[in-house]
Design brief:
Layout (H helix, E strand, L loop, with lengths): L6 H18 L4 E3 L21 E3 L3 H13 L2 H11 L6 E4 L2 H9 L3 E4 L6 H6 L1 H9 L6 H4 L6 E5 L2 H5 L1 H6 L5 H9 L7 E5 L2 H10 L15 H9 L3 E3 L4 H9 L4 E6 L17 E4 L2
Parallel strand pairs: 1-2, 3-4, 5-6, 5-7, 7-8, 8-9
Length: 283
């Protein structure tokens, strides 16, 4: 399985690979070559890897990619990346599990590469996957200080704001969306904000005018702390992000509020909005 993207994408990929490997009784190899490049998000599912073999680039490879990103123009760099992704004929590149099952049935080894955002697959194996992930979520530190009942609000900005392509395809949840969504939460619950833009989030939380006791301190800078904060919440306000989607999948919230539309380009939703979720206009 080729890992790509951040924690949520890697969780989808790890889950798909784990399900396929368990089905066929074969080992799962996680290839972190892409995420360990200078433009990658880093290996983030390594703490889940008990039974998987991890393949990471060596120091020389890391240095070569660092030099390539520093000195090569964009077009030649893209060509080098495509050549580097070529694999032996003994493996076949597959972008979905159906194709991978066919390849395994023929006695060959599939190389999985893609997003694998398949909610139906995940919910069919939910107890198994949740157990594997939840046992690795942090229970101490900032997470341990959370009250038994609270609401979590995930505010995704980061590359959704700074990257023009992502802004066009996915869109950014507006401040008004979060205000409308928060008004639907149980007013007796304190709120934990989870965000990749802490400064913006602090300013927004202050602007709500809530009493100090209703705003909980941030969970920290660790992605797994943030994921655990969402997963333990009684009510959740989502951004249009698979990160908060995973928080809900791993938890058992009573109320889930999500943006409508999820992505600007609706064909990319991939069935991520689930029945029972409360849809609130995103803009």
């Amino acid at each position: 399985m080729e890992l790509s993207g951040g924690l949520a994408n890697q969780l989808f990929q790890w889950s798909a690979g784990r399900v396929l490997a368990d089905e066929h009784g074969v080992p799962l190899i996680l290839d972190a070559s892409l995420v360990c490049r200078p433009d990658g998000r880093g290996l983030q599912v390594d703490r889940l890897s008990d039974h998987e073999r991890l393949v990471e680039p060596g120091e020389l490879t890391r240095r070569l990619w660092s030099s390539a990103h520093r000195w090569l123009p964009r077009v030649p760099l893209g060509l080098v990346k495509r050549i580097a992704l070529r694999r032996p004929r003994a493996t076949r590149r597959c972008g979905d599990l159906r194709a991978a099952r066919v390849v395994l049935g023929s006695g060959r080894s599939p190389r999985l590469a893609g997003l694998f955002q398949e909610p139906d697959l995940l919910f069919a194996q939910r107890e198994n996957i949740r157990e594997r992930v939840r046992t690795r979520l942090p229970a101490g530190g900032a997470v341990a200080s959370l009250p038994e009942n609270y609401a979590a609000v995930h505010i995704r900005r980061g590359d959704y704001v700074s990257n023009e392509k992502y802004r066009r395809l996915f869109g950014v949840c507006s401040e008004q969306y979060f205000r409308r969504a928060i008004r639907r939460l149980d007013p007796s619950l304190p709120i934990a904000f989870v965000s990749d833009d802490p400064a913006w989030c602090r300013s927004f939380a202050t602007s709500l005018g809530f009493p100090a006791h209703r705003i909980l301190p941030p969970s920290g800078n660790d992605h797994f702390d943030d994921l655990a904060t969402i997963a333990r919440a009684k009510e959740v306000v989502l951004s249009n992000s698979t990160f908060s989607w995973w928080g809900v999948y791993l938890g058992e919230p009573v109320t889930v509020i999500c943006p409508e539309p999820w992505f600007t380009e609706r064909s990319r939703d991939r069935g991520l909005v689930l029945p029972g979720w409360i849809r609130v206009p995103r803009d």
